[in-house]
Amino acid sequence: MKELDGWRTQARLLQFTWDRDLAAAYGAELISPGSYRLASILRLIRQQGILSRAHIPHHFFHEPSIRKKVLAAFGTEGRAYVLTSSARYGQYLQLEISVEARGLQKKESLHTVIVNLSSGQVLKFALPPHLLQAGGVEPELINKRKCSLKQAYLRAAEHLSREFAGEDQSWAQKAREKMALEEEKLQAFFQGKTSSPEFAAKQEELRRRLQPVLAINALRAALVYAPLFHYRLVVVSAGGRERTKTATYDPIANLCALD
Amino acid sequence: MLTFFRQVSPGWSRKESDTILQELSYGQFTVQVLADGFRQVMAHLRAGKFDTWGWYQLARRADELAAVQNQAPGLLALEHLKERWQQAGVIPYEHQIKTAERVIHSMHGQAILADEVGLGKTVEAGLILKEYLLRGLVKKVLILTPANLIWQWYQELYEKFGIAAGIQRTRWDWEYANVLIASIDTAKREPHAYIIAGIVYDLLIVDEAHKLKNSSTASYRLVNSIQKKYCLMLTATPVQNDLKELYNLIGLIKPGQLGSYQTFKKRFMAAKRTPKNPAELRRILDQVMIRNRREEGEIRFTERIVHPLIVTLGPKEQEIYKRVTEFIKARGRRTGLGNMLPLITLQREVCSTFLATALTLEKMLVGLSQDELAEAAALLKDLAEVKQNSKCDALERLVAQFRDKAIIFTEYKASQEYIRYRLEKAGYRTLAFDGSLSRGQKQYVRHLFQKDAQFLVSTESGGEGLNFQFCNLVVNFDLPWNPMRLEQRIGRVHRLGQTRDVHIYNLITKGTVEEHIMYLLHQKINMFESIIGELDAILLHLNLGSSFESEIMKIFLEHEETEQIRRQLDQLARRILQGRAAVKASSWEGLL
Question: Which of A2, B179, B189, B306 could link B141 by a cystine bridge, Cβ 3.0 to 4.6 Å?
Fold first, then answer.
């Protein structure tokens, strides 16, 4: 890891420990919990890596097996022959999202959500990390996006919201109850003059403080290019009729799209 | 590109605000899809700026670490500030930590911090602020304080909490600084009040909040109009004269906590000063107010050790003292007790230095009658001829024994200059500290005193707003007549953070009014050795406040004999002690 104080600095390994013996044994820096130095380094690291790219190379997948699978998909229609094949990439947006459940207390959790930019669908599984390689791919090999990045982010947020809605909501309920109680007191204080701007301002303050909110914020994102195997085929039916078809196989989703 | 972002807080600069991309209702909660992080991603994309995959993965790990840290129970700030506090020698007290935890975890960031004087309310507020900043719950913070405390706040936040707050100087600062310290008097004036009203603050801190006890004042209206999520009010005296003050203060924090004023009056007020249902009222107050008391906590203040030093005036000085006192009494009899201020000043100055006396007498010449004029002119001439100053001689002898820094207090600028002249001549390094210094200069003088000089010669005005815990020697060159002013002087060094016993040396000129003052303050009400935390409340209770000096002057003007004066002072002391007992036993003291 490079020390984070300038690009000219030589790369060097920084080791921190809370344990005096380990510090002596490994020559690591002895720090106390809550160390300012460690906190500063973490803060600087978190400012990096806002947007990155990675890809999964085609050669990780066994193409003859895929070809076999695709041809088999046309088995009911007749015999199929591959005319041309090409290796392309589909685009995914991998978002690292912080979700803060703000009720009477705040609880933060981190989530990785991946959105397929071709279909706009949120993946129900993670991209296999051991297959991901750093960097992008040739632009001409990338399929066009059908979903904007903003739409993808909103889809990811929607997906997380649904997940949270299906979980324990007692944190939100408690906050709502407290808010209702405080609002009652506020109304008593204003003695029915609830149309005054002052009442509205105080009510807004109350809402800002106690309303249960799920705050979703993207911390960083990566464009991930996953392989697609594209085939042009000729399908010969039992009657000898020939039709040209296309098929795209997505090895990540294990899906074959036929046209 | 940014047009689709809805600005949540229109008053803020766009850069700093939380913008919401989409808001949806989901069952019990509202979902806010924030734009901040995503906007950064888009900015990188537009610039074609891709970080390496290694950085991305490392940053993800760092996010996880930070999130785990942020989930920790208790106070994150304690761990975070450990190193800083070790270096700065700060040791937080148990009551301060408990207060911060209670405000954050149980009171949802809305509280009146009403600890007794000297228990470190600023540290409690700083701890709460730091915790909220670390947990990412506040960004925009406003601290309103009396102007003379701005620098002290700035310094405490920076040194103890590593918070680099801004100090408000221009109208633009309100919007641009994230943590801003400002004078409440500036804030309530236009255009500032208008600008502030348009900003949504995450946290508002108001120091010396008892100044907001009256709901018809501009300060109250300002604080009431500020849009805030969390709010802390700091005061040692949340109620002084009337329970309505308490009602008003709580109305700012949590309107409705005590119901409408009519309801409150009916349920909780038997009279202005006497509550009904005190147990019930206390239960409700507990939800919004925290009051730590000296006797409850683990805090052990160091001792105050008083050394009275009797100074005998030379014959010439004694004669001048008698003539000035006679002149004052004669003038007092002639003009009545209505306008006593110049006479009080003169009587006090004659116990300090003749230089100060002469300057005041000179100013008084304009309004004097023919006979008085002749007497005053003769006095002035004689004052100028006195070369001896027995008190300063005694001071020189005293400081020669000191092995440490000392603060020498005097009430008068002329005396201050004379003392410095004498001490510098004797080879000591001295510094002047008074109300003519700017805030920055005061800080610098404090710094120089800590690092270099031996003696700080301070006037009363210099006593407010700054703390000198690194010094434990106080010399009262002259005695203020008002015990509150004396408490302020001693309070500069004898407070939280003082690790040594504080020695107080009082220079008392024999056979003068000072002897009587010492008799009252030391022997009768034991002002020096005991901390009268509720002193201001006592004086208010007795309706003495600023008229305390007049009360004493009246005794001196109306009585000649020492015996008579002592009897009167005994009576006054009895009143103070009774007042103290009454305040302690008063119904709201039981409440708080």
Answer: B179
- Which of A35, A42, A173 lies nearest to residue B66, judging by beta carbons? A42
ipTM of this predicted structure: 0.88
Q: Which of B55, B60, B260 sits opposite A189 (nearest CB)?
A: B260
Token pair recorded at residue B316: 């010439």
Nearest neighbour of B51 by CB, restricted to A34, A51, A100: A51
Please check whether residue B27 touches A, CB under 8 A: yes
Residues forming beta bridges with residue A110, ordered by sequence position: A98
Subunit contact A52:B55, Cβ cutoff 8 A: yes
Report if pTM > 0.80: no
Domain ranges of chain A: 1-48, 50-165+210-258
Instruction: Please tell me which residue of chain A has the smallest CA distance to B136.
Output: A106
Structure confidence by residue, pLDDT tens digits, B45-89 = 999 999 999 999 999 988 888 887 666 678 888 888 887 787 766
pLDDT at position B538: 66
Question: What's the order of all strands across the beta sheet hosting B179-183?
Answer: B166-167, B179-183, B141-145, B200-206, B227-234, B110-113, B289-290
Q: Which residues contact A210 (CB under 8 A, 6 or more apart)?
A: A104, A175, A178, A179, A182, B108
pLDDT tens, residue by residue, B414-461? 899 999 999 999 999 999 988 788 767 777 888 888 888 889 999 865
pLDDT score, position B186: 93
Count of pairs with CB atoms under 8 A, one residue in A, one in B:
205
A108 neighbourhood in chain B, CB within 8 Å: 67, 70-71
Q: What is the CA radius of gyration of chain A?
A: 27
